[in-house]
Amino acid sequence: MNIKRKYTIFSNLHFYLKECFNFDRIGFVFAMLLIPSRILKSLVTIFIPKLVIDSIQNFDGESVFLMRILLVTVVMAVASITELLAKNTMEHSMNSFVLVRLNRLWAEKASTMDYEVFTSEDGKQSAEKARIMLEGTTRWGIGTYVPRLLELSVSFIGFVVYAALLVCVHPLVLAALLVTYFISLMATLKAEKKKQLLKGDAARAERKMNYFAYNTRGLSIAKDIRIYSMRQWITQMTTLARLDLRRIDEKNQDYQVHVLIINSIIVLLRDGIVYFVLIYLTLEGRLTIGDFALYAAAINGLGEWLSLITSGIGAFREADNNVTDFRKFLDLPDEDNTTGKELTLTSAPEIELKNVAFSYNDDAPVLSDVSLKVNPGEKIAIVGTNGAGKTTLIKLICGLLKPKSGEILINGIPTGNITAKSFANNVSAVFQDSALLPVSIKKNIIMNDSDADEKSLARVISLVGLTDKIASLENGIETPLVKHISENGTEFSGGEHQKLLLARAIYKNSPILILDEPTAAMDPIAEQNVYMKYNELAKDKTSFFISHRLSSTRFCDRIILIDGGSIKEMGTHDELMKKGGLYHDMYTLQSKYYQEGGEAV
Ligand SMILES: Nc1ncnc2c1ncn2[C@@H]1O[C@H](COP(=O)(O)OP(=O)(O)OP(=O)(O)O)[C@@H](O)[C@H]1O
Ligand SMILES: [Mg+2]
After folding, report:
1. 472 FRET partner, CA 20 to 30 A, in 90, 108, 273, 433?
2. Please, is 98 exposed, middle or buried when counting C-beta atoms within 10 Å of its C-beta (0-12, 13-18, 19+)?
């Protein structure tokens, strides 16, 4: 309930307008001129017939008549030019606001958000909803907020001005107008509420569509599409996703048609009553013909303002809901850097896991009871079948995920008592799906290190075996990566990509080193090279090495085997071989395969 109250229209207004104002003050103030210019324009328009009729009825001479017409023309011209300028300024300013400011807020949030929340079902949905509504700039989505707010303000002020004018005619006119307004407003709001309920389904269907639209067109999947003849299957899935989206769209259309029908009936009723009163008063002689023309135009205008308010409220509510969704995304929990203290490790730490359990999205536990004490500087190898929970375990150790029960201690300090930033400062990692950025090779290795140490840079490049590759590039280490994005860029092979990721992790030189299958894409020589140098890479670090190549575990101090959510076997290679359990079976199977190929492991 509290969460709902947090995003009231007023708090959304405060958030959004403050952001807009701070982004472009002049543009913001100029856009506001849209309100007086529109009202003035419409007032002049309804006064013109009265002016002409009155001038003809009580003719004061040609020059007076011409002066009046000239004055009206000048006022109209000024109002029209101001309106045009204000509208252009508003559109330009709002486009930049969405493209620059809101996109930046989104990206910052995505990178500071608690990792577990970001990868959870709700987090992914919220991020996607917020991202989609940035795409429309001022055409749809969150960027329509200010334009719709201004439209609504114009209609509302216009309505008040016209109502003040009409109340002088007869209170019945205003009463009829207000009652009908209220009914059509209710109908619009009800339809809007129903549309809002469909938004979650729409976002899900949209995500599916986007996935098929974009993720199946990239270079990486082009191979699979051909080899596995996936085209027909993808077309089918895309059609299904599109049908889902169309079904939701049709429901939205239905709501819209209902509102349209109700509004049309109401307009008919309203006009019947008010024109009857007006004609009656004119026939009675209580209104001049000029007055009749003015009030008829005002009634018409008021009707227009009213329907603009009704549709404007619906449209504004939609934009307001977008702001709420965006703010909900911004308010998702960040990495916790406030509670707990900063931990700065000066040497390899001791890491202890006590009865650690973890599950994703309240699903069945992936890890149910993991206890392990790792000595300072120890090299741990983690093995296990696919989906056993190895990656999950290291994500827990490096603080990206938090245990659902049990605790993890670094040098005796529970990880719950240290800030998220402490992990960033003390952990180097290569994940299975780490990405490189479209910047230079050097930048990809040194990352945030502003004064790069050239000697250690050359050392890590040599350690991972990339020296020759980099020397062969015209711009050497300054060559940008990702060919189709960077000019003069280069494309690394899968194994070279992995070497670069490894170089980045080693360069960071943190006391905790985590490598999740860092050599899976490397050729045997490169892999052997990493194994041989592992002692040097992991020197003075507490390290974790995940690999399916079991020969890699030989250079680690201790091997742990994860199975069924906990550590099933633990010890050195020889101890585990002697034990004759799963490790023994996996190792024997793998080495048999190699030996059959003519080589021992
Ligand atoms: N973000 C996630 N949301 C939900 N479930 C997840 C998520 N990440 C992993 N899982 C599930 O948790 C289980 C363990 O995954 P994990 O990635 O830890 O396995 P792994 O041992 O590293 O496997 P592999 O050898 O294939 O890398 C799997 O069943 C997987 O489906
Ligand atoms: Mg894994």
Report:
1. 433
2. buried
